[in-house]
Write a structure and sequence with these properties.
There is one protein chain. This protein has 17 helices and two strands. By secondary structure, it is an all-alpha fold. It has a domain of 55 residues. A hairpin with a 2-residue loop joins β1 and β2. The longest helix has 12 residues. It starts with 29 loop residues before the first helix and ends with a helix.
Length: 423
């Protein structure tokens, strides 16, 4: 395609230089090099070697090389013996009614049975009891409703009741009736053990042979009788030539091989080889021994900072460094941000979390009872709570509640105390 009009033609500025690489050698290009599976695929395996290679193609049957050439099964369509066609599986399973009329007919035939009346399919067992109308229709439930003023202690005991430790007499009844023994407890069948000397306590008496001491290393002596001092190995008579050959040709466990240099015995403390030190040399003991005890004490500044300005040597011993976790030293902001996770000392403690207040489930905290509230709002709160108060009673209680605060502010708690005559 010719270049557009007004476009300069391309030309080689370095015609005197040869091109890089090999051009036209066997038709080799970048595409043919990168796409070997297309332009230069791997040759297939010869037919006589296919059966010896492991077939990993999905869905193919792996055959043993010995039966790979067996083609007799190709002339047979089905293995085994043909059975006559009888009742089919679909006929045995498909026994349900095919239409509404047939279903009703079947229900009518089944209705004469008592089990069908008392135990209908997909329904509860009917005993013939007649429940009152509110219970039968589901308007009223069974049982007694839970009280609404359950405190934290009662809920805690409901979730984690106190464990009852049964008395010993009650436990022995369960041992006798249900064989409820404790872990590791020995069974007592109530036998009376008596010998010529009198009664026997099975917990302290030792049955069997009368020995002064208990058997020690019983399993070890059974596996290796030579550990027993009273054991005498029976003599075995063999040729001395054979024993001499074993001494020279074998290596005993934990012993050096006998090289035929004699049977000279040395003590167990004998050390072979040359000593590593020809004379006494100084060690740690000699180095420490030349210092006095007070000179061997650690340095006075050990574990202390030697950097000027970082020593804290003049600080008061009762001074606490760092920032406290509860910032009660600074006033809390009037409008606290949701991103502010600092505790200013006005949050609930562990006791409140373990024992929440009575009205905590409704989102009402203790601070709501102590917050200053207007007179109209107080009247509305107590009337909604079920108090039938007239205007005169409310005014008198409100005036008495104002005397409880230095600034004349009234809260729900102070108004309740004034209303109950506690002030």
């Amino acid at each position: 395609m010719p270049p557009p009009a007004g476009t300069a033609k391309l030309f080689d500025r370095t015609a005197y230089l040869s091109s890089a690489g090999l051009a036209g050698v066997g038709g080799e290009t970048t595409e043919r090099t990168l796409k070997q599976d297309i332009y230069n695929p791997q040759p297939d395996c010869p037919g006589e070697l296919v059966k010896w290679r492991k077939n990993i193609s999905p869905g193919d049957i792996c055959l043993h090389p010995g039966v790979a050439d067996d083609a007799d099964h190709t002339r047979l369509e089905v293995y085994g013996r043909a059975e006559p066609v009888g009742v089919k599986v679909s006929e045995c399973l498909n026994t349900a009614a095919k239409s509404y009329l047939m279903e009703q007919t079947n229900q009518k035939k089944e209705s004469i049975y008592l089990s069908h009346k008392r135990e209908p399919l997909a329904a509860s067992y009917k005993r013939g009891h007649m429940l009152p109308t509110p219970f039968a229709t589901g308007e009223v439930g069974f049982g007694r409703p839970n009280p609404q003023d359950i405190s934290g202690d009662q809920s805690k005991h409901l979730l984690h009741p106190d464990e009852r430790v049964p008395p010993e007499a009650e436990r022995m009844l369960y041992v006798k009736s249900h064989s409820n023994y404790d872990p590791g407890e020995q069974r007592h069948r109530g036998y009376s053990w008596v010998d010529k000397e009198g009664g026997i306590d099975p917990t302290t008496f030792r049955f069997g042979g009368n020995v002064n001491e208990g058997e020690k290393l019983g399993v070890a002596k059974a596996m290796c009788p030579s550990l027993d001092e009273t054991y005498k190995r029976p003599p075995v008579v063999v040729e001395k030539l054979l024993e001499d050959f074993k001494v020279v040709s074998t290596e005993g466990l934990g012993e050096a091989k006998n090289l035929g240099f004699g049977c000279k015995t040395v003590g167990k403390t004998h050390v072979y080889g040359m000593a590593s030190q020809r004379g006494p040399e100084w060690g740690v003991r000699e180095c420490i021994g030349n210092y006095k005890p007070e000179e061997q004490l650690p340095d006075a500044d050990l574990g202390k900072s030697i950097r000027p300005g970082w020593r804290n040597s003049s600080a008061n011993e009762a001074r606490v460094f760092g920032v406290p976790s509860i910032r009660s030293d600074i006033p809390a902001p009037s409008l606290k941000s949701v991103a502010d996770h600092q505790n200013y000392g006005d949050e609930a403690g562990c006791s409140t979390l373990l024992y929440p207040p009575r009205f905590g489930d409704g989102g009402v905290t203790q601070s709501d009872f102590l917050t200053a509230t207007k007179k109209e709002e107080l009247m509305d709160i107590f009337r909604c709570a079920g108090f039938d108060l007239d205007a005169a009673t409310c005014d008198a209680a409100y005036e008495r509640a104002k005397t409880l605060d230095a600034n004349g502010l009234v809260s729900v708690q102070s108004f309740r105390m004034a209303l109950n005559g506690e002030c």
